[in-house]
C-alpha cells in the first residue's frame, strides 16, 4: 500500500489549500488502495463477522453474523462481482436470527441448521430455517430431533454438508456451549422430506466424527466430507486444533489426514474447494489471534493423506477471523470478518487475481467392491459419482450382463455428488469369481470430462435345497438398527413407550439365508415387500441400515413366506402369520416448509444502562439500570475485546424497574470492554475503557 506522509516542516512550508489537496488525494488513494495483490472494492452494506457465506451462480450471499458484538445482525446481503454491488436481501424472520449454524446450499435454497440463538451468549437451538434464493423468502425446515428420544436436539458450531441428496450434520456442541459432542451424525434425505415433510425424520445411523470439536470448517470434495481444524470447549477455556478428518459416505467411515500447518478455527465461511484443492483463509489461531494466512490442501498428496502448503501469494491485507472468502471466476474475494478484536467487525471487500487450473473429470467415491453372493440372488451396489469442479452431463455403462445400472444411469453430475446404484443378479451364473466395471462418460456439448470407473468383484456360491420356513418376527429400532423385541401374535405396541418412533420389522427364517422372502402387511397400512438377501426387512434396508416405518394407529396382520429363488420365485417354504395392534398414548406434531414472515424486530423502548466512571481507572465500575419492569431479573455480562466473558452478575430491579450494582475491574488489563444487560424487557450494552 502506498503511504503519504505530511511532516510538520512540510505542512509549514505548503499553503493551506495544498495541504488540503494532498490530504484529499491521500484519502482517495486509501479508499481505492491495493495491498500488493489485493484491490479494495465496494464496501458491504453492513459490518459483520462470523457471517455464513454461500456462493450461488457467481454471487456471494452473506447472512447474519455479529454486527455489533455481542449482538447478532438481522440482515442478509448479496455481492455481485460483475457489477461490484452489494444488495440487501430478506432478513432473518422475527425471533429466528442465529449464529454458529451449519449452512448448506441445496439447489436454490440455503439451509441454516441449528446454531446459537439471540446473541453471543444465547442458547443452542434446534431450529432449521431455509432461505429461498429465487423468491427471496424464508421457509421452515425440519427441526433437529434426536431420533432415539423424539425430542428437540439443540446443536451448534458443527459441520453440515450435502452429499448426493443427503444432508449430514455432525460435531459441534450439544446440548450446551461447553459440551462438544460425537454422539450424533444426523442425516436427512432432502427429496423424501420435500415429498413428505411430516413423515420424514432425521436419522442418526452414520459414523460420528472421531474427535469432538466445534468451529471447524466443512468442505465437500471428491465425494467426501472434510472436517478441518476447529476448537474445543468454546466459551469454557477454548483451545484451537489443527486436526483434519475426511468422511467417506459410501463406506460410512472417517479417516485422519495430514494436520493443518497451524491450529485454526473460526474460518468456516472462509474455507472452500476449488480446482480439486481446499483453501482456508484467515481464521483464529492459538491465543485467539486473528490470522492473515491462506493455507492450501492437496488431497492427492502423501498417498491420499494430503498435504498442506502456505499460499503466500494470497496473504491477506489485514489480520482476519470470521472472514468470508470465495473464488468467482479468476478472482479471490474476501469481505467482512473481524480484525484482531472480535468487536472490530468490518465491511470492506477485497479481490485478488486467482490462477485457475480446473480439472475437468469425473470420479467415484468407492473405487471397487467385493461381494460374496449366493447363486440366484440379487444385491445392490451403491456409489457416489462426482465432478471435481462444475457440473456435467454423463451416462453410465456396465461391461457385464449380470451387473445392471438401476439408479441414475444418466443425468448431471455435481461436485456434491450423484447417488448411483448397480444391481448384481447371479441368476444363471455358475459358482466362481466374476469381475465387472461401471464407467461414467461425459455427454452433451461443452467441455469433455475425463471418464471414471469402479469395479465390482463377486464370488458366487451355491444355494441351500433344504426345507425353508419363517420362524419369527423381530421389531427393530430403525434409528439404531438394534432389536427391540420379538413381535408375537396378538401383541400390542404402544409407540409412546418404545425407545424410538422409527421402526421396522425383520423376518427371521430357517435357515438364516433363503432365496427370498415375501412379506404382506394389511390393516391400518398395507404393504407387499420382497427381499432377496438377508436381513429380510418388511420395510426394506440397505447394508443392514433399516428404513424407517412410522406406524399408523390400528390393527395389522403380517404374513411372510420364504422362497427358494430370488424375487419370490421357486419353491415356497413354511409361512408365518401374526396379528398385532398399534396404539399411541402421546401425540406427534410435524411441520412442513411453510413460508415465514420477515418483519424486522423492534428494539425494546426506553431501557437504559449506565456505566461509570468511563474510562474507569479504579477498582470498580458502577452500573445502573432504568425503565425495566418491576422485580425483573437482569443479567449483566462484561466482555473483553476478544469477546471472552470476564465478569457476570445478576440483579433484580425494584418496584420502579431500576437497579444498581458494583462491577469489579481490578485485575483487568487496560483496554476496551463491553457491558451488556439482558432481561425480559430486552437488552442494552455500553462500551467501557479500563485504564
UniProtKB/TrEMBL annotation:
Domain called Secretion system C-terminal sorting: residue spans: 611-690
Protein's UniProt keywords contain NAD: no
Name the UniProt record assigns to this protein: Secretion system C-terminal sorting domain-containing protein
NCBIfam families: Por_Secre_tail (TIGR04183)
Domain of life: Bacteria
Taxonomic source organism: Adhaeribacter pallidiroseus
Keywords: Kelch repeat, Repeat
Amino acid at each position: 500500500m502506498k503511504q503519504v506522509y505530511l511532516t510538520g516542516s512540510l505542512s509549514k512550508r505548503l499553503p493551506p489549500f495544498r495541504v488540503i489537496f494532498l490530504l484529499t488525494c491521500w484519502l482517495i488513494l486509501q479508499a481505492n488502495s491495493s495491498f500488493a495483490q489485493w484491490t479494495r472494492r465496494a464496501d458491504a452494506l453492513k459490518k459483520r463477522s462470523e457471517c455464513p457465506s454461500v456462493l450461488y451462480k457467481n454471487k456471494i450471499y452473506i447472512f447474519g453474523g455479529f454486527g455489533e458484538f455481542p449482538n447478532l445482525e438481522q440482515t442478509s446481503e448479496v455481492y455481485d462481482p460483475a457489477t461490484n454491488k452489494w444488495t440487501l436481501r430478506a432478513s432473518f424472520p422475527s425471533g429466528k436470527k442465529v449464529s454458529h449454524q451449519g449452512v448448506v446450499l441445496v439447489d436454490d435454497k440455503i439451509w441454516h441448521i441449528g446454531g446459537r440463538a439471540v446473541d453471543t451468549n444465547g442458547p443452542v437451538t434446534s431450529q432449521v430455517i431455509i432461505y429461498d434464493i429465487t423468491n427471496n423468502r424464508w421457509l421452515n425446515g425440519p427441526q433437529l430431533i434426536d431420533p432415539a428420544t423424539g425430542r428437540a436436539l439443540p446443536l451448534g458450531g458443527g459441520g453440515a454438508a450435502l452429499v448426493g441428496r443427503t444432508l449430514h450434520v455432525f460435531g459441534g456442541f450439544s446440548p450446551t456451549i461447553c459440551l462438544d459432542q460425537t454422539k450424533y451424525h444426523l442425516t436427512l434425505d432432502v427429496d423424501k422430506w420435500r415429498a413428505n415433510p411430516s413423515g420424514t425424520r432425521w436419522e442418526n445411523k452414520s459414523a460420528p466424527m472421531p474427535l469432538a470439536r466445534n468451529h471447524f470448517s466443512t468442505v465437500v470434495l471428491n465425494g467426501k466430507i472434510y472436517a478441518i481444524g476447529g476448537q474445543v470447549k468454546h466459551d469454557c477455556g477454548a483451545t484451537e486444533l489443527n486436526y483434519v478428518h475426511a468422511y467417506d459416505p459410501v463406506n460410512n467411515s472417517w479417516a485422519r489426514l495430514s494436520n493443518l500447518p497451524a491450529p485454526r478455527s473460526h474460518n468456516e465461511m472462509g474455507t472452500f474447494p476449488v480446482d480439486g484443492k481446499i483453501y482456508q483463509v484467515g481464521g483464529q489461531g492459538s491465543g485467539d489471534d486473528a490470522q492473515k494466512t491462506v493455507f492450501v490442501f492437496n488431497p492427492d498428496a502423501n498417498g491420499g493423506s494430503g498435504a498442506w502448503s502456505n499460499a503466500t501469494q494470497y496473504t491477506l491485507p489485514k489480520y482476519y477471523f470470521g472472514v468470508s472468502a470465495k473464488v468467482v471466476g479468476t478472482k479471490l474475494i474476501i469481505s467482512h470478518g473481524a480484525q484482531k478484536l472480535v468487536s472490530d467487525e468490518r465491511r470492506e471487500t477485497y479481490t485478488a487475481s486467482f490462477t485457475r487450473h480446473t480439472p475437468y473429470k469425473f470420479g467415484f467415491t468407492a473405487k471397487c467392491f467385493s461381494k460374496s453372493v449366493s447363486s440366484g440372488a440379487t444385491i445392490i451396489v451403491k456409489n457416489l459419482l462426482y465432478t471435481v469442479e462444475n457440473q456435467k452431463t454423463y451416462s453410465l455403462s456396465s461391461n457385464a450382463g449380470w451387473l445392471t445400472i438401476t439408479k441414475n444411469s444418466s443425468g448431471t453430475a455435481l461436485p456434491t455428488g450423484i447417488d448411483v446404484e448397480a444391481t448384481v443378479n447371479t441368476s444363471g451364473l455358475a459358482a466362481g469369481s466374476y469381475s465387472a466395471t461401471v464407467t461414467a462418460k461425459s455427454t452433451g456439448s461443452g467441455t469433455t470430462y475425463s471418464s471414471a470407473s469402479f469395479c465390482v468383484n463377486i464370488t458366487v456360491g451355491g444355494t441351500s435345497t433344504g426345507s425353508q420356513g419363517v420362524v419369527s418376527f423381530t421389531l427393530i429400532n430403525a434409528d439404531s438398527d438394534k432389536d427391540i423385541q420379538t413381535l408375537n401374535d396378538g401383541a400390542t405396541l404402544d409407540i409412546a413407550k418404545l425407545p424410538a418412533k422409527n421402526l421396522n420389522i425383520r423376518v427371521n427364517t430357517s435357515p438364516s439365508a433363503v432365496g427370498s422372502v415375501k412379506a404382506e402387511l394389511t390393516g391400518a397400512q398395507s404393504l407387499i415387500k420382497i427381499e432377496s438377501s438377508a436381513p429380510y426387512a418388511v420395510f426394506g434396508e440397505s447394508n443392514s441400515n433399516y428404513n424407517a416405518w412410522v406406524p399408523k394407529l390400528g390393527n395389522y396382520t403380517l404374513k411372510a413366506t420364504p422362497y427358494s429363488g430370488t424375487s419370490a420365485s421357486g419353491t415356497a417354504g413354511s409361512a408365518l402369520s401374526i396379528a398385532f395392534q398399534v396404539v399411541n398414548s402421546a401425540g406427534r406434531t410435524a411441520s412442513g416448509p411453510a413460508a415465514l414472515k420477515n418483519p424486522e424486530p423492534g428494539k425494546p423502548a426506553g431501557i437504559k444502562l449506565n456505566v461509570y466512571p468511563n474510562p474507569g481507572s479504579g477498582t470498580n465500575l458502577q452500573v445502573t439500570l432504568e425503565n425495566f419492569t418491576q422485580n425483573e431479573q437482569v443479567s449483566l455480562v462484561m466482555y473483553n475485546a476478544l469477546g471472552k466473558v470476564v465478569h457476570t452478575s445478576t440483579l433484580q430491579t425494584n418496584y420502579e424497574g431500576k437497579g444498581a450494582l458494583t462491577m469489579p475491574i481490578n485485575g483487568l488489563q487496560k483496554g476496551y470492554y463491553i457491558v451488556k444487560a439482558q432481561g425480559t424487557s430486552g437488552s442494552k450494552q455500553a462500551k467501557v475503557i479500563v485504564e
